[in-house]
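re: that chain from earlier
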Amino acid sequence: MTAQADAEDTVDRDQILAWVRAERLTLADFLDDLDEHEWQVDSLCDGWTVHQVLGHITSQDTVRSTVIGLIRAKGNWDRMNAQAARDHAARFAPAELIAQLRAAAGSTHLAPLSSPLDPLVDIMIHGQDIARPLGRTRPMPTEQAIAALEHLIRSPFYGARKRLKGLRLTATDAAWMHGDGPDEIRGPLSELFLVATGRSVGLAGLTGPGVARVAAAM
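^ sequence. v structure.
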């Protein structure tokens, strides 16, 4: 399978919602096993602990909260998200946030300007943001990873189009590739996913002449 067609054109919306629900529920099960110390470990999201990442996942953006948050953050989207994550995590203990995650697993709520695949990208990458620093493994299901990866590469919101411009991505654990640039990067879907979303930790699992180029871009 190649990334020549938009994932939302090839995947049924109900299937996407089912994937998102399953990812949320399996992440909740994963989080049940964390001890008190692990909640305070720094995640892959700069400046966020594991607890605060869960605060981000379980907070719900509305048009009103987004506008107010952007005003308070002086127009900086990342700063707004970071503050909302910290605020929500400060209000609830980890067990309460896990309960919220389970309760909202089937939610169809979308943040302003987002599409049905954005919640899938969000839950899959934040699962890695939590698991990797803890030395734990959270596998990425192949079909879901491909759909999410194709979407985030095309989206203007993740920076992947600029980060991966001119590169050819080839998965080593699935029949998937993207791009026709002269410089190739090869590796598991999970590592390509990490790099596409700006997580440099994924570089260690990639090979090819394009690795140095994408490292410099990050």
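The chain has two domains: 7-134, 159-217.
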